[in-house]
Amino acid sequence: MPTLVHDHDGTCRTPCEQRGSIPHHPAQNLITIGLAWWLIMGLFVDGWAHNHLGDRLETFFTPWHALFYSGFLAVAAWVGWLGQRGWRAGRRGLLALPQGYELAALGVPVFALGGLGDMAWHTVFGIEVGVEALLSPTHLVLFLGAACIVSAPLVSAWRTPTARKAPPGWSGRAYWPPWPCSAWCRS
To answer: What is the mean pLDDT of residues 47-55?
Structure first.
């Protein structure tokens, strides 16, 4: 049973209804997790390339960056589609997004700016190797944007006003979506 909150006019609403946001659907979280997996795998593959091939790389346009940034484009398009769907339903601003996806809306432009900065950084300063790649200012901005995006399904599940019980026939599958998000945010 959802938690009910009494409004100033005495009506009872769920916290999601009171805030005016769109409740999430578990399938949205699963799709976001799959696309975030693509983004995070691209991050790790790109990190591997920086550490093992960085001294031989001479351009920003590598297959490793292509995997990383295509994962970002996929998850950004998905978050944009979710927002557009809410926009068409008459919601504006962050309320157009499903509950818990506000951080993803922040993470998309942060990541995009970090990506443009990363391209400029690599063009001017070259490809970093080792710890320099981890501590590059543009890479830190990319990490921040990615963490905001990847955490959206976790925040969404956390804010669900209903009990955390799996629907009949799901046998516990409703519990697992937050765990990969939590692990990826910490990785």
So the answer is: 74
